[in-house]
UniProtKB/TrEMBL annotation:
Belongs to the CoA-transferase III family. This is Uncharacterized protein. The lineage of its organism: Eukaryota, Metazoa, Ecdysozoa, Arthropoda, Hexapoda. Residues 328-340 have a biased composition (Polar residues). One of its GO terms (molecular function) is alpha-methylacyl-CoA racemase activity. InterPro entries: CoA-transferase_III (IPR050509), CoA-Trfase_fam_III (IPR003673), CoA-Trfase_III_dom3_sf (IPR044855), CoA-Trfase_III_dom_1_sf (IPR023606).
Length: 383
């Protein structure tokens, strides 16, 4: 496992930081999630398989001291707060670098550590709106439409932060020093959309939102409803694919030229798809190289033969998950990717064992718990 031997502290937060920690855990890092007391805040446990949980009160002096001891033996810290929060806790980079000069201090926030927005609250939709990306997403006859919270939280946030951490670890292998990774989800979302920005005034994006080739505006790159109220996805951009696409529909380029008036073409093709079921169209296009595919539900994607053959989804990481979860698919020939633990941890589940590795004995640990400097999971409470 590529990151075996790397210890990561992940301060519990919402989606982006847990996703970043999940990536590192999936490739072998030991990730210790620093949790508040159970029930004191929303607990995002969806991305915590393969992690340990230590319950710490970072507003308690003794809790801060435990955290500092953990920092000394860790390679990476992921913190999800607005600028200045860690400094107020006495745990900013300057303080922690004095304890561990090799620490990778990853700051994952909405707007970064500097600038007029750095103290402002926000969520994925806000980061997208400030990045300029949101203005480009959605249909032409309504307002901009965010793609769930995929772009800023997970793409521009968690994934970009994980990349920054890996780059910093590589630097450390050469120079022996840690550094701050400042990951702004706003800037990350904009960077993720580099292709959109750079092609914005090209023929691909020369029209208003929702009226371009790749944003659902044209008839050969969009989804169509079938007779049984399911959907087919069409991406027949190149001429050879477009010709095969029309052939599958029983049409020709004389009836629907590729670069004809898009609205009229949309109507013709939409009416054609509504004539038959999704199963019919799957059968028509299964042997046609036309870039046409069914829009599968989550349950259907899990059962698709291709995905099953590639072990794309796995139930074992969390038996309580409503559906099997996606497996990490950066296939490395030498290193495997597999989290060691098969379920998310309870808050404070590993406080006892982790604090023991720091030199605390049982009496000291239960004393800290009694003073509410640390938190133990219920199953540990009577040990």
């Amino acid at each position: 496992m590529a990151l075996k031997g790397i210890q990561v502290l992940e301060i519990a937060g919402l989606a982006p930081a847990p996703f970043c920690g999940m990536i590192l855990a999936d490739f072998g890092a030991k990730v210790i999630r620093i949790d508040k007391a159970s029930g004191t805040d929303f607990e995002d446990n969806f991305l915590s398989h393969g992690k340990l949980s230590v319950g710490l009160n970072l507003k308690h002096p003794e809790g801060v001291e435990v955290f500092k001891k953990l920092t000394k033996s860790s390679d990476v810290l992921i913190e999800p707060f607005r600028a200045g929060v860690m400094e107020k806790l006495g745990l900013g980079p300057k303080t922690l670098f004095q304890l561990n000069k090799g620490l990778i201090y990853a700051r994952l926030s909405g707007y970064g550590q500097e600038g007029g927005l750095s103290q402002k609250a926000g969520h994925d939709i806000n980061f997208l709106s400030y990045s300029g990306v949101l203005s480009m997403l959605g249909p032409h006859d309504s307002g901009p439409l965010p793609p769930s919270n995929l772009l800023a939280d997970f793409g521009g946030g968690g994934l970009m932060c994980a990349l920054g951490i890996l780059l910093a670890l590589y630097d450390k292998s050469n120079y022996g020093m840690g550094q701050v990774v400042d990951c702004s989800m706003t800037r990350g979302a904009a960077y993720l959309a580099s292709w959109l920005f750079r092609s914005h005034h090209s023929p691909l994006w020369g029209q208003p939102r929702g009226q371009n080739i790749l944003d659902g505006g044209c008839h050969f790159y969009k989804t169509y409803k079938t007779k049984d109220d399911k959907w087919m996805a069409v991406g027949a951009i190149e001429k050879k694919f477009y010709d095969n696409f029309l052939a599958g529909l029983g049409l020709n380029a004389g009836e629907v030229p590729q670069y004809s008036e898009f609205d009229a073409a949309n109507k013709i093709i939409s009416d054609r798809f509504k004539m038959h079921s999704q199963a019919h169209w799957i059968n028509i296009f299964k042997d046609l190289d036309a870039c046409v595919s069914p829009v599968l539900t989550v349950d259907e994607a899990v059962k698709l033969d291709h995905n099953v053959m590639q072990n794309a989804f796995d139930q074992s990481k969390d038996i309580n998950a409503p559906v099997p979860t996606p497996e990490p698919q950066l296939s490395l020939n030498v290193s495997q990717s597999r989290a060691a633990q098969t379920r998310p941890p309870a808050v404070g589940e590993h406080s006892l064992e982790v604090l023991k590795t720091l030199g605390y004995n049982k009496e000291e640990i239960f004393g800290l718990a009694k003073r509410k400097a640390i938190f133990l999971a219920y199953e540990n409470a009577k040990l």
